[in-house]
């Protein structure tokens, strides 16, 4: 029986073409900025460059109280003062208004010094036997306080459960903004922002210039009325003066009422700066002294009102 003939495979001379892998273009993903994921109650705009709180109605009321009288004074009173007193009077008024308005906007739209969150996500806690350990338990939810020394005085650092960090000295958690703010003085509802380390200087500039602006409007509104009386040689009644300059008459009364509010606030903050304390520290000291008389040491006092003022108003501004 003959064996089958072997099958000789035929080798094709045509080369095998290998298809190159298909390259897909990676679509770049837009990076989210930090403010877009920030859990606080602030509002950000202009790409996160500006921020404010949520009490818009109060800020609009304060804006009207500043801009409204200033615009009326500039339209109805300044032309008379330009012609009958001196052109420098309206120019000084414009300078005070611009400085007050700019510092108001800067205070309201600036980061007050918010401390980043999750700096200490796992603090120490006390167990049922008083021993410290990491992590919460069913016995205790109060973190261990850390202590630092400032000028030989011990300062306790409290833990913020919301921001997950040990607050630095002079920092407080603002309930309205839901943030821990460095050197927080108070939350100003009328400026719609916290007042802290980064915006205290423009805040102080605002209240000081607003006080001088009220005084300026009161004085020169009265000057306007007195010059009208002088031009009539004294033979004029109250009704005639009122009809001749009703806006100046009303502005003198309105700005006098505003002066009591903004002027009192300016005087109060001047006293705080001279003592080297914040509003929170002043209120806490009053409560502590009422319960424990004699405890009034302030480790942040520089020793003199001038040095305290230089430290508060001339210190460098930290990064936001």
Describe the protein:
- Belongs to the DHHC palmitoyltransferase family. ERF2/ZDHHC9 subfamily.
- Keywords: Acyltransferase, Lipoprotein, Membrane, Palmitate, Transferase, Transmembrane, Transmembrane helix.
- Its EC number is 2.3.1.225.
- The protein is of the alpha+beta class.
- The protein has two domains: 42-114 and 183-314; 124-167, no CATH class.
- 45% of the residues lie in helices and 12% in strands.
- The protein has seven helices and twelve strands.
- The protein has helices at 56-84, 88-109, 200-231, 238-244, 246-275, 279-291, 305-314, and strands at 43-45, 50-52, 124-126, 132-134, 146-150, 153-157, 159-160, 165-166, 172-174, 179-181, 186-188, 193-195.
- It is elongated.
Strand content: 5-15%
Number of strands: 12
Head-to-tail CA distance between termini: 98 Å
Largest sheet: 2 strands, antiparallel
Helix content: 40-55%
Tally of discrete structural domains: 2
Q: Average pLDDT, to the nearest integer? A: 81
- The arrangement of helices and strands along the chain is EEHHEEEEEEEEEEHHHHH
Shape: elongated
Strand order of the largest sheet: 1-2
Q: Strand pairing plus helix content: what structural class?
A: alpha+beta
Number of helices: 7
Radius of gyration: 33 Å
Q: Outline the low-pLDDT stretches.
A: 133-139
Regarding quaternary structure, how should these chains be classified? single chain
Would you summarize the structure shown here?
By secondary structure, the protein is α+β, with helices and mostly antiparallel strands. The chain has helices at 56-84, 88-109, 200-231, 238-244, 246-275, 279-291, 305-314, and strands at 43-45, 50-52, 124-126, 132-134, 146-150, 153-157, 159-160, 165-166, 172-174, 179-181, 186-188, 193-195.
């Amino acid at each position: 029986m003959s064996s089958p003939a072997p099958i000789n495979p035929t080798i094709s001379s045509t080369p095998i073409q290998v298809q190159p892998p298909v390259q897909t273009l990676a679509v770049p993903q837009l990076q989210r900025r930090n403010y877009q994921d920030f859990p606080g109650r602030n509002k950000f705009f202009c790409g996160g460059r500006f921020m404010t709180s949520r009490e818009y109605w109060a800020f609009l009321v304060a804006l009207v109280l500043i801009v409204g009288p200033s615009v009326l004074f500039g339209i109805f009173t300044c032309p008379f003062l330009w012609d009958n007193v001196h052109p420098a009077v309206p120019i000084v008024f414009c300078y005070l208004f611009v400085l007050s308005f700019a510092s108001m906007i800067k205070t309201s739209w600036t980061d007050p010094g918010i401390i980043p969150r999750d700096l200490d996500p796992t603090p120490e806690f006390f167990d049922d036997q008083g021993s410290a350990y990491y992590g919460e338990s069913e016995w205790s939810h109060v973190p261990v306080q850390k202590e630092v020394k400032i000028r030989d005085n011990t300062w306790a650092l409290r833990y913020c459960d919301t921001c997950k960090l040990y607050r630095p000295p002079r920092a407080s958690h603002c309930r309205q903004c839901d943030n821990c703010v460095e050197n927080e003085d108070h939350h100003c509802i009328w400026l719609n922002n916290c007042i802290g380390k980064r915006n205290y200087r423009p805040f102080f500039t605002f209240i000081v210039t607003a006080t001088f602006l009220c005084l300026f409007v009161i004085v020169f509104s009265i000057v306007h009325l007195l010059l009208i009386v002088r031009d009539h040689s004294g033979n004029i009644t109250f009704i005639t003066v009122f009809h001749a300059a009703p806006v100046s008459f009303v502005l003198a009364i309105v700005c006098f009422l505003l002066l009591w509010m903004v002027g009192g606030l300016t005087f109060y903050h001047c006293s705080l700066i001279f003592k080297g304390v914040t509003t929170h520290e002043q209120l806490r000291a009053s409560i502590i002294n009422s319960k424990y008389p004699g405890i009034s040491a302030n480790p942040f006092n520089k020793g003199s009102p001038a040095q305290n003022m230089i430290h508060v108003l001339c210190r460098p501004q930290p990064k936001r």
